[in-house]
């Protein structure tokens, strides 16, 4: 058997994991007792696993999460008030398939961004496209898009994204043009894709952050009424981690 031509063809076919697995099988006697079908299955599994890993990596890079968070690292201690069952259910991604939303709220430092990124990473694993935004920075990006003529293209890209995460949602009151931009986004997404907002602003106070009651009603109708809610509680996670890193005084 001419091994090198076969390896070259696997390279040409862009099957690097399959190629590496075959080389390993040729080097190691432990694979000799296996049937042909078993050895082939191992090679196919290795290639599929590598491709899945790279796909998740690409989706995660595009999402631009600020934190390397995942569901496995969440703290479900009682003091945080997290509904473990609901979080694990959301991590499965059916809410995105059904075009529902999620609202994560709680005090400053409670871990809202971490939880939002963890759910976003789970969505990437589930083969969904995700984008993370600080709300204020997305609003700035939309303003620039109006000026340079790329507004329609930006709206189209956002509309095609399975899950958009708005962090620091409604932290600052909106201008009329910003509210109009958000309505454009929400209108495109309603019933077609999912939105997650992370905020320290209670839902009852959303309406007051908008400059126009009609726009507020339209946006919130598309966001709130079909949303799962996760309410975080407890002491600031930043404070807790900071105390944990402080050296002992020796007293």
Would you write up a description of this structure?
The protein has two domains: 3-62, no CATH class; 64-239, Rossmann fold. Helix content is 53%, strand content 10%. The chain is built from eleven helices and five strands. The chain has helices spanning 3-12, 16-27, 36-63, 84-91, 94-97, 112-125, 135-148, 151-159, 176-189, 213-223, 237-245, and strands spanning 101-105, 130-134, 163-167, 194-199, 227-231. It has a five-stranded parallel β-sheet. α2 runs antiparallel to α3 (36-63), α3 (36-63) packs antiparallel against α6 and α9 packs parallel to α10 (213-223). The relative contact order is 0.13. Mean pLDDT is 88; it is low at 240-246.
Descriptive tags:
10% strand; alpha/beta; 251 residues; Rossmann fold; 2 domains; five-stranded parallel β-sheet; 53% helix
What's this model, at a glance?
The chain has 251 residues and is of the alpha/beta class. Helices cover 53% and strands 10% of the residues. It folds into 2 domains: 3-62, no CATH class; 64-239, P-loop containing nucleotide triphosphate hydrolases (Rossmann fold, 3-Layer(aba) Sandwich), CATH 3.40.50.300.
Spatial order of the strands forming the largest sheet: 2-3-4-1-5
* Average pLDDT score: 88
Q: What is the element string, with H for helices and E for strands?
A: HHHHHEHEHHEHEHEH
Helical residue percent? Answer: 40-55%
The tally of strands reads 5
Number of domains: 2
How would you classify the quaternary structure?
A: single chain
**Class computed from helices, strands and strand pairing:** alpha/beta
Terminal Cα span:
73 Å
Radius of gyration: 23 Å
Q: What CATH architecture label of the largest domain applies?
A: 3-Layer(aba) Sandwich
CATH topology-level name of the largest domain: Rossmann fold
The main pleated sheet reads as: 5 strands, parallel
Count of alpha and pi helical runs: 11
CATH superfamily of the largest domain: P-loop containing nucleotide triphosphate hydrolases
Low-confidence sequence ranges: 240-246
CATH class value of the largest domain: Alpha Beta
Q: Assess the beta-strand content as a share of residues.
A: 5-15%
- Shape, principal axes of CA atoms: elongated
């Amino acid at each position: 058997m001419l091994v090198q031509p076969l390896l070259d063809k696997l390279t040409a076919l862009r099957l690097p994991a399959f190629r590496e697995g075959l080389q390993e099988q040729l080097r190691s006697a432990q694979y000799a007792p296996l049937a042909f079908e078993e050895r082939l299955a191992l090679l196919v599994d290795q290639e599929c696993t590598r491709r899945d890993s790279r796909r998740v990596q690409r989706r995660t890079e595009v999402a631009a999460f600020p934190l390397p968070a995942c569901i496995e690292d969440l703290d479900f201690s009682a003091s945080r008030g997290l509904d473990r069952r609901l979080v694990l259910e959301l991590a499965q991604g059916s809410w995105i398939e059904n075009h529902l939303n999620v609202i994560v709220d709680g005090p400053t430092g409670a871990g809202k961004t971490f939880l939002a990124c963890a759910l976003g990473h789970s969505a990437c694993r589930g083969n969904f496209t995700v984008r993370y935004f600080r709300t204020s920075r997305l609003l700035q990006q939309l303003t620039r898009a109006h000026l340079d003529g790329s507004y329609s293209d930006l709206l189209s890209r956002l509309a095609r994204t399975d899950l958009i995460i708005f962090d620091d949602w409604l932290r600052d009151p909106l201008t009329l043009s910003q509210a109009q931009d958000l309505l454009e986004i929400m209108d495109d997404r309603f019933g077609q894709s999912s939105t997650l907002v992370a905020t320290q602003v209670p839902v009852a106070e959303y309406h007051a952050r908008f400059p126009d009651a009609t726009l507020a009603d339209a946006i919130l109708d598309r966001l709130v009424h079909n949303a799962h809610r996760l309410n975080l509680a407890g002491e600031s996670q930043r404070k807790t981690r900071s105390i944990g890193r402080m050296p002992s005084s020796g007293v």
